[in-house]
Amino acid sequence: MTASKHETRLFEGIKLIDTPLVRKSLEFARAHHDSMSFNHIYRSWIFGAIFASKIPDFANVDLEIHAVSAILHDLAWDHTSIFATKDKRFEVDSANAARDFLIREAPDLDQRQLQIAWDSIALHTTPSIARYKEVEVALCHMGITADFLGVKFPGGLLTREEYDAIIGELPLLDFKGQVKNLLCGLCKYKPETTYDNFVRDFGERFVDGYSVESKLPIDILMKPFE
User: Where would I find the HD domain in this sequence (predicted)?
Assistant: First the structure.
């Protein structure tokens, strides 16, 4: 699915795919996010769309799957979310919730499309894997990363003018401070899901009583040999 096969709309001069499924995804995300989180996922989608328009390797990306993946990628990063479980990483909870939504709202999607959407969300914080997966997975990761790096995103792919225009319409709203609070909440209330991933760093630095003693992968792997 490329943009030429679907209707599009302009957002600050940026062409975005505009399908019933994309609109439903935005409505679903809006219903389950506060303003800061909603602005983040919306910006992440737009940044990815910008990159898709500039990088030849993304010429055949499924723009609809990329859009819904970016829009639904953080459904469970708040530990109080109805989609959050006690025993799964927030990326997996978010991917599961997104897949359930897509199965319900887009029964015409095939299993490969559903799997790519799931992978895009589950791997969006794992660049060492995501960038080597399908183009939709890599693009989703890149757009999300760009929302943290802004114009410092490598390669000069995001101009100051583009960034400022998007931020003007979708303000940051104490983005990094609130993200810190959300990730610290995961460390505090479901720490067992954080020991083997980047969220652990927030727990070690900011959460009183958080400890990874005897819980790191190396501890688990080497214990049988002691």
Answer: 38-129
Residues near 8 by beta carbon (within 8 Å), at least 6 away in sequence: 15, 16, 17, 18
pLDDT band of 5, cuts 50, 70, 90:
low
Q: What would the pLDDT profile of 198-218 be if each residue is shown by its tens digit? A: 999 999 999 999 999 888 888
Protein fold of 3-173 = Hypothetical protein af1432 (1.10.3210)
| Backbone phi and psi for residue 214, each to the nearest 5 degrees, phi listed first | 65, 15
Distance CA 139, CA 62 (A): 10
Q: Where are the alpha helices (H) located in the chain, listed in sequence order?
A: 20-32, 35-54, 63-71, 90-105, 111-122, 127-130, 135-149, 160-169, 175-189, 199-206, 217-222
Q: What is the pLDDT of residue 226?
A: 54
Q: Where are the domains of the chain?
A: 3-173, 174-226
Distances (CA, A) of 225 to 99, 217, 218, 219: 40, 14, 11, 10
Asked whether 82 and 189 are in contact (CB, 8 A), the reply is: no
Cα gap 142→215, rounded to integer Å: 30
Residue whose structure tokens are 């303003």: 35
Other C-beta atoms lying within 10 Å of the C-beta of residue 24: 17
Q: Report d(CA 172, CA 46) in Å as an integer.
A: 14
Place of tokens 């995961």: 186
Under 8 Å CB-to-CB from 153, ≥6 apart: which residues?
47, 142, 145, 146
H or E element in which residue 8 lies: strand 8-11
